[in-house]
Amino acid sequence: MIELHRPRRNTTILLINTSITAGVAGYFFMDFQQTGLFYSQVMMAVFGFWAALLTRSLIRRRVLARITGARLVVLGLMRDTDIPFEAIDRFALNAGERMGFVGHRVSGKARVIAVSPKVFGAENMTRLREALEAARPDLHNISNTDFRKAYET
C-alpha cells in the first residue's frame, strides 16, 4: 500500500493559517465581550468555524490518498472516495496544470475526482500518475482539455 502524505511545507502553511484564523476569532470574541456588538458575534462565529475546518483538515488529511493493489482511496475533508482501478476510465494528472482529474464510473454514472497539485505536491502527483499507469496500462494520461471534452458529452 502506498500512502501519499501532505507535503511538510503545506502542513506548515496550514498551521500558520489555522493559528491566524483562531487568533482573529479570539479577537472578535474579546471584542464581543467588551462591546456586545452583533457584528463581532457573527465574525467570531465565522472565523471560529473557519478555524475548526482548518483544524479538521490538519488532523483528517495527513494522508491525502492511499493506493492499494486494486483501489485508489482519495481522502477528503468530509468523506473518502474509494475507487476500484477497474472503474477508472480516464485520468489527467499533468505537471504544470492547475488541477488533476480522475474519471470513473459508479453504477453507470460518470464521476470525477479533482486532485489539486498545490495540495498534493509535485512528487505525490507523479507517484499517483505512475501508480495509475501501472495499474491500468491500457489508459494513458490525457490533457485537461481532452478530459473536459470527454465528460461534456
Describe this structure in words.
The chain contains five helices and seven strands. With 153 residues, it is of the alpha+beta class. The protein has two domains: 59 residues; 89 residues, PH-domain like (Roll). Strands 1-2-3-4 form a four-stranded antiparallel β-sheet, with helices on one face. It has a three-stranded antiparallel β-sheet with strand order 5-6-7, with helices on both faces.
Key descriptive features of the protein:
PH-domain like, 4-stranded antiparallel sheet, 3-stranded antiparallel sheet, 7 strands
| Secondary-structure element series | EHHEEEEEEHHH
Span between termini = 35 Å
- What's the CATH class label of the largest domain? Mainly Beta
Helix content: 40-55%
Structural class of the helix and strand makeup? alpha+beta
* Rg result: 20 Å
Give the CATH H-level superfamily of the largest domain. Answer: Pleckstrin-homology domain (PH domain)/Phosphotyrosine-binding domain (PTB)
Number of strands: 7
* Tally of alpha and pi helices: 5
Query: In this structure, how is the largest beta sheet organized?
Result: 4 strands, antiparallel
Strands of the widest sheet, in order across it, are: 1-2-3-4
Q: Do you know the CATH architecture of the largest domain?
A: Roll
Categorize the overall geometry.
elongated
- Determine the CATH topology of the largest domain: PH-domain like
Strand content bin: 15-25%
| Structural domain tally | 2
Averaged pLDDT, please?
Answer: 90
Give start-end ranges of low-pLDDT stretches. none
